[in-house]
Amino acid sequence: MIEPLDVLLRLAEGKTLEFKRDLSSPKNVLKTLIAFANTAGGRLVIGMADNRQIPGIADPLNEEERLGSLIADSIAPRLVPNIEMITYQNSNLLMVEVFSSGLRPHYLKSEGDTQGVYVRLGSSNRRADRELIAELRRSAEGIVFDELPMTELSTNDLDLAAASKLFSAQRTLTEQELLTLRLLTREQGRLVPTKGALLLFGKNRQRYFPDAWIQCGRFLGKDKTHIFDHIEINTHLPLAVEEVMGFLKKHAMRGAEISEIRRKDVWSIPLVMLREAIINALVHTDYSQTGAPIRVAFYDDRIEVESPGILLPGMTIEDMRQGVSRLRNRVIARVFRELNLIEQWGSGVRRIFSEAEALGLPTPDITEIGMRLRLTVFLAKPMVLEQVAPQYEPELESRLESRLESRLESKLAARVITLLAEAEAGKALLAEALGHKTVSGELHKQIRRLLDQKLIEMTLPDKPNSRLQKYRLTAQGRTMVAGSR
After folding, report:
1. Are residues 364 and 220 located together in one domain of the fold?
2. What's the domain range around 464?
3. What is the mean predicted confidence (pLDDT) over 342-354?
4. Which of 88, 212, 215, 326 gets the highest tally of CB atoms within 10 A of its CB?
5. pLDDT per position as a tens digit, 5-42
6. In the listed set 168, 185, 208, which residue is the last one of a domain according to the structure?
7. Cα distance between residue 425 and residue 122, in whole Å
């Protein structure tokens, strides 16, 4: 035990470790134990000062008994940690080990079950608010927030046309399929949408979840002092992935026009990592929390993806790095999986770290800040905005796509037309420019539709299935683009 203890006492305080000099402030000790039990467990070492000096405990047996009584008298529901007396460098210490509790939320009796609940954030304890207390209860009971029924709503509150369109390449969304996906559930003899369904495809999502949207910003420099460009994304969650990626790519060209999309090195940001970070945020956000949306902040040297909600009880940041995954939102995760936005359960964060290593980038950072989780992806080289800004006109490009989308009744078709207005391209190249991992069924469909409308044409019309096949705008297509500028 000597060597493990030696290693432990050299570690920094964090989510699962804290040091206390003594029991002179028992309330703070009790808050720490409650926070450990309500989150990921942890160990508290008593007899070690903040400066790493080890004064020890003069009377460890009496202090052990006193601590046991304090815990029994002050914490509810009952908490029974392991308390052990240990010796290190001729000093007596107490080690208190607490496990993530299935009886959460624990609270300090003197403060009550609404004000006395604490959770562990980094190396500090924080009082849980009403929403977080409810989340702690649900997780202890095995209840998933996004599977809960919205009993006051009906199927008419869902945009099933948009959902069916997204699933058209995979399946037809029959009533049974909607039940299987948990987009609908039976409640008192009637079909009602789940919270997950409303988050994914709700016609009026923000009425019920006012913070379920995404805020994207490109900032000048390395802080939020000056903002250069920003958008607010309120579309259905599966579609939001590409909208965020579009914003990031719009601000990530190495002095290149869209016509240079064929170059493999045109993007100066790690697209695979960022796509996984965005999907992870959308799938694991705690949508029961209120106060702020998902935020994507693009700085000169890094991109931060920040989502509401701390880690689920029992989870640590190190667990995330190792690929351990627990689903907070099963409905959203299942739909993303069916739409091939998620390749394999639990692989997203691990892929982010693997990709960073393969690209020679600094290790990404994951931090709990307040009641939010922030994932930071660092860039290989700083992108000084003044050097990049003249290369594109974001507002004009966005306006063009918006007008084309209105005329074509498809955002994807509008983006394809915009790309082909700059250069001819094949399906694989278009998919890459759109941020897709593969040529999706929807992309195939929209290209066929644009061909039928005679807005685009094949460069090799006599060989429609040639691997060298590309597409370009027709005169009619060019006229449409010119009229939409």
Report:
1. yes
2. 393-484
3. 79
4. 212
5. 777 888 888 899 999 999 988 999 999 999 999 999 99
6. 208
7. 48
